[in-house]
Design a protein that fits this description.
Mean pLDDT: 88
Low-confidence stretches: none
Helix content: over 70%
Largest sheet: none
Structural class: mainly alpha
Length: 306
């Protein structure tokens, strides 16, 4: 009975994790003013943030976030309790990380939204970690019931996951520094004096305030755009090299999520919005993390049996 229940519980948890990630991204980006009118004059203004917070869409997103987060905690706990006995060491480690991150996000939620970038980073990276851990457990649970083609090279995928975390943090700092409109005309200054301050998560303030330049957020955009291309290429390469059967669903999932995340990122760079594209970009990043985590679990499973 526990085996039959664990898999649907994990699938439900994964959907809820993406729901939390999407709702959180919507609330954060809408408050910044992504896609507002008239662009870019309205971006980063307090009146824009107030209008976004009071809108019906934001209220619905806020309610969705709270319900989904609460439901996720209960469903994830139930899945871990039911699946624990049949999982190996890596899956149990993922389950512990899942529960710890869930508890940490519940605590951090008391201080959200915050002007401190560290809080925003913790929320975004925590949401991605939830999606990745659940995907890892789904892969482990599927392997209990059916044969999955062997995969190898877990270190490459672990590196890709670490790079994805850095890339997600880079993108998060764009909104945390209210720099979404820095390249509304063009990005001509990839680096500016003192730009390293922009990546300090413990220093509050917008990019304009920190660098005292109207387009002070350009370095954030430059790094994130370059990083997106590099990470997408490395993710596809690592996934393709991880198995002798490159057409497996795990590899296709990584390739598809990489292409989608990169395409949406390029669309954002070209059109500076709209909001729906920005949220979809965040969800694609979550899907890519999940696909890489599931493939990593298969690699580790093969290593244990060799």
């Amino acid at each position: 009975m526990s085996e039959r229940l664990t898999q649907p519980l994990l699938a439900t948890a994964f959907v809820l994790a993406l729901t939390v990630l999407g709702a959180s991204s919507y609330l954060r980006l809408a408050a910044n003013g992504i896609g507002c009118e008239p662009w870019p004059a309205c971006y980063g203004k307090e009146v824009t943030a107030k209008a976004a917070r009071e809108s019906a869409a934001a209220q619905a997103a806020r309610s969705t976030h709270r319900i989904a987060a609460s439901a996720f905690a209960l469903v994830a706990l139930a899945a871990v309790v039911l699946g624990w006995r049949r999982w190996g060491g890596p899956a149990r480690a993922a389950a512990v990380v899942l529960l710890v991150v869930t508890a940490a996000l519940a605590l951090i939620g008391r201080y959200t939204p915050s002007a401190l970038p560290a809080i925003t980073l913790a929320n975004v990276l925590g949401g991605l970690a939830l999606a990745g851990c659940v995907a890892f457990l789904i892969s482990a649970q599927r392997a209990v019931a059916r044969y999955v083609p062997p995969h190898r090279h877990p270190r490459a995928l672990a590196v890709v996951l670490a790079l994805l975390a850095v890339q997600a943090a880079s993108g998060t700092m764009i909104s945390a520094r209210s720099a979404g409109a820095a390249c509304a005309i063009e990005c001509s200054e990839a680096w500016l004096p003192g730009a390293a301050r922009l990546w300090n998560p413990l220093e509050p303030g917008t990019a304009v305030d920190l660098l005292r330049r109207e387009r002070g957020g350009e370095p954030l955009h430059a790094l994130h755009r370059l990083g997106g291309i590099v990470v997408a290429v490395l993710a596809v390469a690592a996934a393709s090299a991880s198995t002798r059967r490159p057409g497996t669903p795990y590899v296709r999932a990584v390739v598809g999520a990489s292409a989608l995340a990169l395409a949406l990122g390029l669309a954002l760079a070209a059109y500076e919005g709209p909001l729906a594209v920005a949220v979809a970009h965040a969800l694609a990043a979550g899907a890519l993390v999940a696909a890489c985590a599931a493939l990593l679990e298969r690699c580790l499973a093969v290593r244990r049996t060799e």
